[in-house]
Amino acid sequence: MTAQPNKAIAAIRSLIYYLVFYPFTIVYSTFCLLIGRFLSFETRFKVFTVINYSYIAWLRLCCGVRLDVKGLENLPKDRAYVLVANHQSEFETIFLLTMVRPQCIVLKKELLDIPFFGWALAMLEPIALDRSQRRGALKQLLTQGKARLEAGRPVVIFPQGTRVPVGEPGRFNKGGAMLAASAGVPVVPLAHNAGTCWPGKGFIKYPGVVSVEIGEPVETQGQSVDQVHDAAIGWLLAKMDEQLEN
């Protein structure tokens, strides 16, 4: 009987969150579309994604979702890299844009068709994959990803390809390891439990702590794609299990 009032309160708080989130997103995206063409990529990225800090602060204030991040020292400072993370909700897509700056994110092409938000997102030069064309999508990832890495931009990938519920590992593809190996850059694994507070495809946000942990870079020199993938994803899966137990 006590769970229902808590869920009801969480639902009300989530509604209030979205009543600010969506109008603010539309207005800010419109502003970004108007000024984006006049800015360099680095400045455009900073301006476009500054709103993400507000999203996270509002989420904490309105829904009681806090953040605990460990391992920031493992992010390479002097070279590009491929960051691979598990995918549970929208939270990590918001948060990672505040942590890796600037970056190139790999996403599904249809996101760019969302009015205002998607149009502004396209100006951040993501790698937008058509998931119905698997062979072409891999070629696009390797070609465009290598170009972004050579320009000094880290590439962020969700190897599961879609949001996976908490407690389910899903299937991790090898695209991130293939890209890193072909470009000669390290893979940095990142594990989180954002789905416990912000369930994927769910409306209600639950108060709690989102734990984010960044692993040590997995070097690709002298390693096969399978070795790089197994090392990065092996660490990620073990950390996901640890977060689930806690």
Polypeptide structure, described:
With 246 residues, the protein is of the alpha/beta class. The protein has one domain (3-245): Glycerol-3-phosphate (1)-acyltransferase, CATH 3.40.1130. Helices cover 48% and strands 14% of the residues. The protein has seven helices and seven strands. The chain has helices at residues 3-35, 41-63, 91-99, 117-122, 134-150, 175-183, 225-245; strands at residues 65-70, 82-85, 104-108, 127-129, 155-157, 187-192, 208-214. A seven-stranded mixed sheet has the order 1-7-6-2-5-3-4. Strand 3 (104-108), helix 4 and strand 4 form a beta-alpha-beta unit. The chain is globular and about 55 Å long. The model is unreliable at 1-5 (pLDDT under 50). Residues 81-195 form the Phospholipid/glycerol acyltransferase domain. The chain crosses the membrane at residues 15-36. GO terms for molecular function: acyltransferase activity. InterPro entries: Plipid/glycerol_acylTrfase. It holds the Pfam family Acyltransferase.
